[in-house]
Write a structure and sequence with these properties.
The complex is a heterodimer of chains A (about 260) and B (about 210). Chain A has about 260 residues and is an all-alpha fold. Helix content of chain A is about 80%, strand content about 0%. Chain A is globular, with a radius of gyration of 21 Å. Chain B is an alpha/beta fold and about 210 residues long. Helix content of chain B is about 30%, strand content about 25%. The longest helix of chain B is centred in the last third of the chain and has 14 residues. Chain B is globular. Classes of the chains: A mainly alpha (about 260), B alpha/beta (about 210). At the A-B interface, helix 7 of A face helix 2 and strand 6 of B.
């Protein structure tokens, strides 16, 4: 079954839908109209460019080019996380990038090598979109976790010092803040996983069905991807917090920023 | 036991405290007093390694406090910051929390022991089962103080532990601290009754 192509003229008609939110954002003087239009424009250009790149990546299908592309995605994701959290980029970039790369590779190797099992693990058709989806979810989980962890450490500095000053090990003294970061970061994912299929049809599944896959295949991918996303996000959050801790605390256990 | 050797603390490019030297013997109860903004709390925090002096050194039992010894020192301290309360829902949870730490687990007190300490500090038994939002600032402060006592540490560092207490409660706290025979206590206070009751008074000011 062929997917119906959307012509450029019809895409333009689709863009007209933006008039409704833009009008109300303007009417209530939110100051978000310009941002909305700029974001829509950026999204369109970026996705067209990605579509163009992906065509070539799929055509070449070279392991090294694919790995390089994923490494590029990791760099962009790490720097985006730090920009969104307003934490010191220079100090923490490597921590986030290493955490992302390690957790992505662990999950990619397991998911592709054990669950999906394509002929070549790093084949562009599977490796790149799956890595992209995993990274996108890691990004939001890490933004929430880092904001919560460093935010609560700053707000509740007295609690941190109290624990340290009463004999807590470095790990024990940050445990309440790690706990809070994990809860804040993973509660939304757990909630959305619990209602998936009931109140929302997830993107991957919808995309696959539109692309001509049978719903039963699409569902299996969606389930496995949700598990992979959850595991990779959790591993990456833990690694980011553990590794960044080494950079952000001095040897007396005091925060450097 | 605690030796402050020629300490200087600089804050905002201005000296907060300069060339401070002092020695506190094992088991001694010492109070730091004097006008605000002269570094009493900073000096107290420096014993736990929370503030590092810009000059000079701190020695505990002859060993210099630095990055290699700070963890060992913190295992021997009880630290109570100014106006601090543990953020737990119930009084029972508040009291139990510090005993969840590996180093303190063996010392976890029974309910009976806690209630004995309650009585000594003039706290009613019913408080033990209350929610922490239901208790007053003074009750909270006494509970935090009894936690510091129950931890049975060699060095007890207290930053204004009686700021919310009435005179009767302060008198009880004075008697209470006097029974900590083994502990070396270093306390910051502005309360004259408390300051007068200490054998060792260290003035921090101009």
């Amino acid at each position: 079954m062929e997917t119906i192509n959307i012509g450029y003229g019809h895409m333009a008609l689709g863009f007209l839908l933006l008039i409704i939110p833009a009008y109300f954002l303007y009417r209530y003087r939110t100051g978000l109209v310009k941002d909305t239009l700029w974001a829509a424009l950026r999204m369109t250009v970026q996705l067209f460019l990605i579509g163009f790149y992906l065509e070539y990546l799929f055509l070449w299908d070279s392991v090294w080019v694919n790995l390089l592309w994923v490494l590029f995605m990791v760099v962009i994701a790490s720097s985006t996380v730090l920009k969104r959290t307003k934490l010191p980029q220079k100090m923490l970039f490597m921590a986030v990038a290493v955490a992302f790369l390690v957790s992505l590779l662990i999950i990619d190797l397991y998911f592709l090598g054990v669950v999906v099992r394509p002929e070549k693990i790093f084949t562009a058709r599977y490796f790149i979109p799956i890595s992209g989806m995993i990274l996108g979810n890691m990004l939001s989980a890490n933004v929430i976790a880092l904001n919560s962890f460093y935010g609560s450490l700053t707000r509740e500095r007295q609690l941190y010092l109290y624990l340290l000053g009463n004999g807590a090990s470095p790990g024990e003294s940050i445990a309440p803040f790690m706990r809070e970061a994990l809860i804040k970061s993973f509660n939304p994912t757990i909630a959305s996983m619990a209602v998936m299929g009931l109140i929302a049809l997830p993107g991957t599944m919808t995309g696959q069905i539109l692309g001509g896959s049978s719903p039963s295949v699409a569902i299996k991918y969606q389930i496995m991807l949700m598990i992979a996303i959850f595991a990779s996000s959790l591993i990456s959050v833990l690694l980011t917090l553990w590794i960044s801790r080494r950079k952000s605390f001095d040897r007396y256990g005091m925060m450097r920023f | 036991m605690i030796e402050f050797d020629n300490l200087t603390f600089i804050y905002d490019n201005k000296p907060l405290m300069q060339h401070f030297t002092c020695c506190i013997a094992r088991g001694e109860k010492a109070v730091l007093y004097g006008p605000s903004g002269h570094g009493k709390s900073t000096l107290l925090a420096s014993v736990a390694g929370f503030v590092v002096p810009d000059e000079g050194s701190i020695r505990i039992d002859g060993r210099t406090l630095d990055t290699s010894t700070v963890q060992q020192v913190r295992r021997r301290t009880a630290w109570l910051p100014q106006e601090f309360t543990l953020p737990y829902d119930t009084v029972k949870e508040m009291i139990e929390a510090p005993f969840e730490l590996r180093i303190n687990q063996a010392l976890k007190p029974s309910r009976t022991t806690v209630l004995e300490h309650f009585a000594r500090l003039g706290l009613e038994t019913e408080l033990y089962d209350k929610r922490s939002i239901e208790i007053s600032g003074g009750q909270r402060q006494r509970i935090m103080l009894l936690i510091a006592a129950l931890l049975q540490k060699e060095i007890v560092l207290l930053d204004e532990p009686t700021s919310a207490l009435d005179p009767d409660s302060i008198a009880r706290v004075i008697d209470y601290i006097r029974t900590w025979h083994e502990a070396t206590v270093l306390m910051v206070s502005h309360d004259n009754r408390l300051i007068d009751s200490f054998d060792r008074k260290i003035y921090i000011g101009d």
